[in-house]
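Box S1 | Example of a co-folding query
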Amino acid sequence: MKNAKPWILATDIDNTLTGDAQALRRLTCRLATEQARGTLFLILSTGRRLEQVLTGFLEEGIPEPNAIISQVGTELYLPPFSLESAPLPEWNTLLQERYSRNRAVSFLSDIEGLEMQPDKYNTPLKVSCYLDKTTYPEATASIIRDRILEAKQEDVYQVIWSSGRDLDIIPAAAGKGKAIRYLIQLLGLDPLSVVVAGDSGNDRSMFEEFKQGIVVANAQPELKKLHNEDPIPGIYFARQPFAAGVEEGLQNFGLLS
Ligand code: GLC
Ligand code: MG
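Box S1 (continued) | Returned holo structure for alpha-D-glucopyranose
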């Protein structure tokens, strides 16, 4: 990068960038210009697997980033990106220290209607299931959180609840927010120059970790709660959905004209 101090956009992909192909094309183009000038360091921070990000460049028009955080902040990738890329080993080792996949799975026992997500979404550092077929999905998510608290394991495991359906148990040290923080430190970037953007529960940790953020208009209730329950100053609630909302937010922060 030519500029010593780029601003940093850390954005979710699904329903934050994607959802309106035309708006995404426009935003991707504007971000690419900033990256080429060296004024922007772009991080994609997603629940997707790496290959779902890579295919998205061509198939969905997702912008090519300077770093990828995948699997809900349990894997980090630096360029060059390819299907053979291995996640950053230091981050893996750090997360593996105390996390046991078997123990994480044990917190899900005997819950009627719970369905495990396909194997490809379950990794040594991420246990993922669907709760939408349980009678009270949100209450069930709370029960799973309580089990972790009762076992005094909240320093090791955290529950991420998204979109009224997805529940992930990942290391307490992981998550999108903490992964961005780690990456920023590793690369010597300025944490005060970070703007985050998202739409659902797995984005929440980014808003808690950084001062400036954009919530798109189509956000899920669990993220809109940030507005009503315990407002975090510095969060911009866009009037527009999807990529148009991200662009609107960046204009609000004076990062795009
Ligand atoms: C993505 C992941 C899924 C996860 C969800 C919410 O859809 O593929 O495993 O549960 O994000 O974090
Ligand atoms: Mg999303």
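The longest helix spans residues 21-37. Residues 47-48, 72, 117, 121, 128, 160, 162, 166, 168, 202 surround alpha-D-glucopyranose (ligand 1) (CB under 6 Å).
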